[in-house]
Amino acid sequence: MHLGVNVPNYGPGTDPGVLREWARIVEGLGFDLLMVSDHVVVTPDVAVRYPEPFYEPFTALSWLAGITTRVRLGTTVVVLPYRHPLVVARMALNLHELSGGRLVLGVGVGGARQEFEALGIPFAERGRLTDDYLTSLREAWGPKSAIPVWVGGNSEAAIRRSIRFEAAWHPLRATLPFLRDAVAGHALPALAPRIGLALTDSPAEETGRLPGTGSLEQILGDLDQLRRLGADTVVLDPYHGDPEETRRPEVAWRALTAVATRWRTPS
């Protein structure tokens, strides 16, 4: 099972130097995948959790491709209705080729109503648009494209979309029981969950605990359970919604170092 990291490409503590250090640490620790998020217009509903500066994902990943050599680069997730599908197809294919085949394109329907309004895109049509645009992507790339596509979201519609387009299902911060039920109830093409990473000094209460939260032993146990569920990749997300966290990336770096070290050399 591969491990990835969702890197904050937003917030008051983020600048090109910090992004460069994130890339150096993620690749240096041996993680397999570095992912970033997507917003086009930082409307008030977006800014609460993901304020400016917000580095556009294709632009940021193209830059990071030039300062990394091994780590795969991905989106968690591009809001597919925000851009014309032929533009996404061209940007994704170019990035994949220029990076030496390292792109993972995670896509989703989005949920920021004000941002949809600012872009002039009907919020209620986002599911249908996502399906139409995924079809357009496949047609634009042709049958020989090797770009992995992940479908983000925890809904039944997201699972059906994953199956329909033969893309990995990419649920976000879901409980282990929810994931077990979903895997048992569907013939998923692949499973690639994103979980929060919140390392604590002492074990967290198990009742209601999300995977990735708690002591190092609990987190390693969560990863092992996800591996047993058939997860191909697990993306660790060390951001918890407070923009001030981006001013203290060292906290996340320490947690990632602890996990990477023990995951490579389990006791």
Secondary structure elements and pairings:
Elements: E1 2-6, H1 16-28, E2 33-36, H2 44-47, H3 57-66, E3 72-79, H4 85-98, E4 103-108, H5 113-119, H6 126-141, E5 149-152, H7 156-164, E6 168-170, H8 176-185, E7 194-196, E8 198-199, E9 213-214, H9 216-228, E10 233-237, H10 249-264
Helix pairs in contact: 3-4, 4-6
Q: Can you walk me through this structure?
A:
It is globular and about 50 Å long. An 8-stranded parallel beta sheet has the order 6-5-4-3-2-1-10-7, covered by helices on one side. Strands 8-9 form a two-stranded parallel sheet. It has one domain: Luciferase-like domain (TIM Barrel), CATH 3.20.20. The chain contains 10 helices and 10 strands. Helix 4 packs across helix 6.
Mean pLDDT: 97
Instruction: Let me know the CATH homologous superfamily.
Output: Luciferase-like domain
Proper CATH architecture: Alpha-Beta Barrel
The shape is globular
Strand order of the largest sheet: 6-5-4-3-2-1-10-7
Structural class designation: alpha/beta
Counting DSSP H or I runs of 4 or more residues, the number of helices is: 10
CATH class: Alpha Beta
Largest sheet: 8 strands, parallel
User: And the CATH topology?
Assistant: TIM Barrel
Q: How many domain regions?
A: 1
Distance between the termini: 17 Å
Q: How many β-strand runs?
A: 10
Fraction in beta strands = 15-25%
What is the alpha-carbon Rg in Å? 18 Å
Low-confidence stretches: none
Helix/strand order: EHEHHEHEHHEHEHEEEHEH
What percent of residues adopt helix (DSSP H or I)?
Answer: 40-55%
